[in-house]
Write a structure and sequence with these properties.
9 helices, GMP Synthetase, Chain A, domain 3, flat, about 300 residues, alpha/beta, 13 strands, four-stranded mixed β-sheet, five-stranded mixed β-sheet
């Protein structure tokens, strides 16, 4: 169901946000402004508006009008995108619908049946613990839901056993009859990266380059789409954005599912699809002990 507050939120923006939007869309605003000027100058009845000064009152009004037209266009585009998304998730029994329902899980709260729909009473978004979820269907017809919650530090972590059990019970309540489901919520897959990294000390000394380089790797992993794929070439692209980076020789790039004692590393030749849905550097193989930094002089 569309929340009217979400529609209002399309228009509630700070002055800085509006300014940034205008800067990003300056070409479109300029195009509208130019069209208005051309119309005015071509109208014989408006021949008195001949000043070429940018601060001429009529030109200022033309610019204000151009901005208002652009803002109107922008809001309609945003509103259409909002409606398209709402329509996608509103269709029952699709994978997108399963994902939306999963994200509405309120741990420990009471479910009721209202007009044939399984919902919480009361609905309390503050009690929703799942912030990342993907839904896929296997060739065997099993609907697989991967889920994770906020770890409190801007990252993801697995649901506790109690939370996972509660979530599974919730899914069993709203899923279609006869549909087999599987719930996956486990700690992050872990990355082991052994490499020789060449950097330019004249551009970025080691005390600056090393933390920036390792932060870039961690940031890249953090921003991977949930249940996405890590591609070696994309990781290298992220490294190349670090000031002072020259080259890298990757000696080993491997990923394992979360483990307690023995890892099960799989070499990443081109790409790797996460099992848990997210990825982080293996604490047993921290970057600062696995990467050899070499000054390129």
């Amino acid at each position: 169901m569309i929340n009217i507050q979400d529609i209002y939120n399309l228009q509630i923006r700070t002055l800085d946000e509006v300014k940034n939007l205008m800067l990003e869309s300056k070409e479109r605003i300029s195009e509208i402004y130019t069209d208005i000027l051309d119309e005015v100058l071509a109208d014989a009845e408006l021949s008195g508006l001949s000043s070429t000064s940018k601060t001429a009152v009529w030109r200022l009004w033309a610019f204000v009008t151009a901005v208002q037209i652009w803002m109107h266009e922008f809001l309609w585009v945003k509103y259409k995108a909002f409606l398209d998304q709402a329509a996608t998730y509103a269709q029952p029994h699709t994978l997108a619908w399963y994902q939306r329902k999963a994200l509405e899980y309120q741990h420990g709260d009471t479910l009721i049946v209202d007009n044939g729909s399984v919902i919480y009473s009361p609905i309390d978004p503050d009690n929703r613990i799942i912030i990342a979820c993907s839904v896929k269907e296997t060739t065997q017809g099993i609907v697989v839901l991967k889920a994770a919650k906020d770890d409190g530090n801007g990252g993801l972590t697995a649901l506790s056993e109690a939370e996972k059990d509660g979530f599974e019970g919730y899914v069993n309540r709203f899923k279609d009859a006869g549909v087999r489901t599987q719930i996956i919520s486990q700690n992050a897959d872990v990355l082991k990266l052994v490499a020789d990294v060449y950097y330019s000390p004249g551009i970025s000394p080691i005390d600056t380059f090393k933390p920036a380089f390792e932060a870039a790797i961690n940031e890249f992993l953090l921003n991977l789409p949930f249940d996405g794929v890590i591609r070696k070439i994309s990781l290298i692209d992220a490294m190349q954005n670090v000031l002072g980076f020259v080259d890298i020789g990757i000696n080993e790039m491997a990923v394992s599912v979360a483990y307690d004692i023995t890892p099960n590393f799989v070499n990443v030749n081109l790409s790797y699809e996460t099992v848990s849905g997210f990825l982080q550097v293996d604490e047993n193989f921290p970057l600062d002990t696995q990467i050899n930094y070499i000054a390129n002089v």
